[in-house]
Amino acid sequence: MRIAALLVALIIVACHHSAFAGDVAAAQSIIRAQEQAFVRDDAAAAYSYAAPAIKEIFPAPDIFMSMVRNGYAPVYRHKSFEFGDSKTDGGWIAQRVHIVDANGEAWVALYTLEQQGDGSYKITGCSLLKAGQSV
């Protein structure tokens, strides 16, 4: 009986880890797709990954792109863009990204994503700090 209970517990943990890994992979895919849209200057594609709350603040793709160009230059243009740690909490994911900007300066971006009603994830925000800077 103990062995059966242990097996059930292991299966639950494995399924949870697998779902976590799948959600993180989905979130990273969304972030990467938006990053590549920025590289191509494809405002419509970049905007499509933004959550509804972001679209309320920036009601058109060109307005959104202007905000990114002016306020998130390291995200918009960079030499490297590598995923770091991630955390999940229910339908939310926080994903750290290590960026080296066009001038060679290191940054850390913390993306947040929320799971939508259709199961997809959308980007709800991005906080940008120079590497080593405290919050």
TrEMBL record:
Asked whether the UniProt record includes Zinc among its keywords, one would answer: no
Matching entries from InterPro entries are given as: DUF4864 (IPR032347)
| Keywords per UniProt | Isomerase, Signal
Q: Which domain of life is it from?
A: Bacteria
Annotated PROSITE patterns: PROKAR_LIPOPROTEIN
Q: Which residues form the signal peptide?
A: 1-21
Q: Give the molecular function GO annotations.
A: isomerase activity
This protein is called Topoisomerase II
Instruction: Print the organism lineage.
Output: Bacteria, Pseudomonadati, Pseudomonadota, Alphaproteobacteria, Hyphomicrobiales
